[in-house]
Amino acid sequence: MNKPDYEASPAMFRNQPLGFIAAVLLIPVFGVGILILLYWYIKARSVRLTIAGDSIHLSRGILSKEQTDIDIREIRTVLIRQSFWQRIFNVGQVEVFTTGDMPEFSLQGMPDPNFVRDYIRGRINREDEER
Q1: Distance in angstroms (rounded) separating the CA atoms of residues 57 and 39
Q2: Which residue in 42, 37, 103, 43 sits closest to 68, CA to CA?
Q3: Where are the domains of the chain?
Q4: Is 86 exposed, middle or buried (0-12, 13-18, 19+ CB in 10 A)?
Q5: Beta strands of the chain (E only): which ranges?
Q6: Distance (Å, rounded) from C-alpha 41 to C-alpha 64?
């Protein structure tokens, strides 16, 4: 199997640095911070976005799984939303649209979101040139 061009889960610290610091500071308070960080870690690792070649694979869940596969040729729009702090830490929300007004999926806190958009745009443009 070939190495994916992009494979990531939502970032914890880079996505919400103040929340992460607050959780760390709450560790001495009856271990509340550890519970928060553990829940946050499991939630972040239960989502995985993989892009390889002309397909996007999204996997969500730990015990029960929800998996979505999208052919890049079916994608109409990729929307990236980034706050000022998210731009500094190079994370953001990625929304992928195929048809209709609702996104096929929306992922918050993804590392290097502009790479995702540029990669998809490049593959679509390559397909158009080959036709």
Answers
A1: 24
A2: 103
A3: 6-130
A4: buried
A5: 6-8, 47-52, 55-60, 66-71, 77-81, 91-97, 105-111
A6: 17
Strands, sheet with 91-97, edge to edge from the N-terminal-most edge strand: 77-81, 91-97, 105-111
pLDDT digits (tens, 9 = 90+) for 11-41: 999 999 999 999 999 998 878 899 999 999 9
Architecture (CATH level 2) of domain 6-130: Roll (2.30)
Tens digits of per-residue pLDDT, 50-107? 999 899 999 999 999 999 999 999 999 999 999 999 999 999 999 999 988 899 999 9
First to last CA, the chain: 27
Checking if the pLDDT of 131 tops 70, the result is: no
Query: How far from chain centre, in Å, is Cα 77?
Result: 16
Instruction: Please give the single-letter amino acid code of residue 24.
Output: V
Span 91-119, pLDDT tens digits: 999 999 998 889 999 999 999 999 999 99
